[in-house]
Amino acid sequence: MKYAILIYHNEELNQSMTPEEGQALMAAYYAFGAGLTANGVEHSGEALLPVATATTVRVREGQTLTTDGPFAETKEQLGGFYIVDAENLDDAIAIAAKVPDAKSGSIEVRPVMVFD
Q1: Which of 44, 58, 73, 102 is the most buried (most CB within 10 A)?
Q2: The pTM is what?
């Protein structure tokens, strides 16, 4: 089954990292992706630009309305995601626990809906 591994982190914390800390975090992410591949976990993923670049779209009474930024103010922002193929929720949770930002942010695991 496919699961979305959604990575929430505090952008301010990441932006305050030294270059060395940022490089270490990226190295941890590269190692995480390599580990998924080495363990035969089919996956894809992307990092997202900071929340300041987001646009929220709503359609009300036939009109498209846009707002700069995310829908709601939060302490953690969606920073990226993986789509993984895991045997079950327990396996997906085990994968999510290895995401580097799990140590300072939070990781949401959500099954991907399959349309027949």
Answers
A1: 102
A2: 0.85
